[in-house]
Amino acid sequence: MNNYWITNVRIEKGYEKPENTVAKTLTELVNIQIEKGRIANVTTEAPPSESEMIDANGALMIPAFREMHIHIDKTYYGGPWKAVRPATNGIFTRIEEEQKVLKDQLPTVEERAKKMLELLIQNGHTHIRTHCNIDPVVGIENLKATVSALKAYEDLITYEIVAFPQHGLLRSDSVELVRQAMANGATHVGGVDPATVDRNIEKSLETVFSIAQEFDAPIDIHLHDSDSLGAFQMEQIAELTEASGNQGKVTISHALALGDLVEPRLQTVTEKLAEVGIDVTTTVPVNRPTIPIPYLWENNVPVSVGHDSITDHWSPFGTGDSIQKLALLGERFRISDEIGLSQLLRFATGGVTPLSPTGDLQWPKVGDDASFLLVDATCSAEAIARRKPIRAVYGKGNIFVPKQVVEEGVHS
User: Fold this and answer.
1) Backbone phi and psi for residue 283, each to the nearest 5 degrees, phi listed first
2) φ, ψ at 184 (rounded to 5°)
C-alpha cells in the first residue's frame, strides 16, 4: 500500500488543565493520509471518496517503538523451554557455556532470529538494534544469519547490528573478527566490560575506538561493572569520545554503576556523559539498583529501553513487550500522573511523544515517517499504566502481517 487513509483514528492534542493541574489528555478523531511511507495529511475532513481507507474505529495512534538492546542471534525462543543453570562464576559461567551452546545453535540461528523479530514487531518495534556475537566459537556466522533474518523484514523495520565480542575483545583475541564483521554488515562496534572481562581498560577501549574510526562507525559498549569501577570506565569512555571526535556516536549499554552512585559522584559522571553526547540503554532491572532513568534524561543523557534477552542461556525472562516495560519503569520511579505517564513513551520511541510536557502537539505531523501503532486506549497515559493491547503495527507505512516462519529444523 503506497497511498491510503487511516480514518477515525484518535490522536492526542493537548492537556486539560483546570486550576493548573492536568486532569486528562485531550484527543480528537482525525483522518490521516499515508503516502510512500510517510504521513502526507492529518485532517478532520473526510478523505476523497475514491481513496483506499482503513477504519481505525477510534483506536489511539502512538509512535512506533525502537528496540535498542536485544540479542536476536542467541535465543531459545522458538525452541523448547530451558531454564538457566546457576552462574557459579558470574559472566564467565555464561561465556564458558557459549563454547558449546553457540555451536549447537548455529543450524537454527536464522529461523529463531526471525521468530524473535516477529515477536518484537508484533509488540510495536519498527527499529531494532541487535547485538550479534563475534567470537572464535562462531566467527561471523551468527552475523550472516542475523543479516539475513533482518533483511526479510526490511519492508517494515530499520535496524542496526552491533559487532559484539561477548567473550572479550582482547580476552578472546577477537579484534580481527570484529573488523571482519564491520566489513560484512555490522553497523556498530561493540565492547564488553574492559576491566572485568578484558582486564585492560585502556587497551580495550582504545581498540574499540580505533576500529570505529577505521570504519567510521558508532560504538555500543556493554558495561556491567558496578560502583566506582563502572563509573571510572564511563569517564574513560567519555574522554575517548571527546578526544576521537565521536560526540553523539557512543552508547553505553546497561551502565549499571549509575544505579550505585550517589551525589555528588552521580552528578559528575552524568555531566561528563551529557557533555559528549553519550546515551544509555537499559532493561530497567529490578534485581539490583535501577539506574536513575528520569534523572539522566532531565540532565541531558538520553535513555532508551531494551529487552536484552527473550529466553536464552543467560536469562529465562523477557516478553518483548515495551508497553509492559514502560509500566514497570513508571512503577519503579513512582510516576503515576497524567503527564509523567504519557512522557514515558520517550524511553521507547527515541524521544518522540505525541505531546510535549507542556501539552504542545509534537506528533504526528506531515512528513513524519509512517511507523506507528494503533492501541486500544484513550491516551498514552492509559496505554502504559493499564498495559493496553496493540491492535495494529505499521512500519514504513506497511501494516505488519505475521509471516509463516519455517518450523522444520527449529529445535534444540
Assistant:
1) -95, 5
2) -130, 30
Cell digits for 358? Answer: 507542556
Q: Is residue 324 part of a domain?
A: no
> Using one digit for the tens of pLDDT, what is the confidence trace for 191-242?
999 999 999 999 999 999 999 999 999 999 999 999 999 999 999 999 999 9
325 assigned to some structural domain: no
* Mean pLDDT lowest among 14-18, 255-259, 386-390: 14-18
- For strands 125-133 and 158-164, give the pairing: parallel
246 grid coordinates: 565521536
48/78 same-domain check: no
End-to-end, the C-alpha distance of the chain in Å comes to 38
Q: Are residues 57 and 196 in the same domain?
A: no
pLDDT of amino acid 98: 85
Using CA atoms, how far apart are residues 350 and 82, in angstroms rounded to an integer? 33
Kindly report the CATH number assigned to the domain that includes residue 93. 3.20.20.140
**What stretches of 7-155 show up as alpha helix (H) in DSSP?**
91-105, 109-122, 141-151
Average pLDDT of the chain, as a whole number: 94
Same domain flag for 10 and 59: yes
Provide φ and ψ at 70, rounded to 5°: -150, 155
In a domain, 406, yes or no: no
Task: Say if CB 88 and CB 40 are below 8 A apart.
Answer: no
Same domain, 167 and 273: yes
SS3 per-residue string spanning 134-168: CECCCECHHHHHHHHHHHCCCCCCEEEEEEECCCC
Unique residue bearing C-alpha cell 539498583: 289
Residue among 156, 216, 218 nearest 400 (CA): 156
Helix axes of 201-215 and 175-182: crossing angle, nearest 10 degrees: 20
Q: Give percent above pLDDT 70 in the chain.
A: 97
**Where residue 320 falls among pLDDT bands split at 50, 70, 90?**
very high
Q: Residue 243 CB: number of other CB atoms within 10 A?
A: 10
The range of the structural domain enclosing residue 230 comes to: 65-317
Inside any domain, residue 258: yes
Cell of 97: 557455556
pLDDT for res 94: 85
